[in-house]
Amino acid sequence: MSMTYTWEVTSIQTKDETNTDNATNKDAVIQTRWKVIGKDSDGNEGVFNGATPLTSVNTSASDFKALADLKEEDVLGWIQAKVTGDYETHVNAQIQKQIDDMAIKETDLPWKD
Hints:
single chain
């Protein structure tokens, strides 16, 4: 069964950070909260909520993107660059587990009247 994933940034935290060139990256994103919604071909959905810390310490002033210029796609790109390999497998497996659990139902005991 195919799965479609939709990513969303739900919050960010910022602070001024000094980079390795001793320049200040003002309001650098240092923490993100996000979610991934997985939807299967039957329309069943599962959600994974995550948090990913970031730093701009190794980002030069010329490459630094100001907070006012950020778009969700920028932050998602940073997050998705970290949510790879085993971590991405874990995220997708948790979503699939939620969807699989939807098929489980509480059943009356057949011997109880």
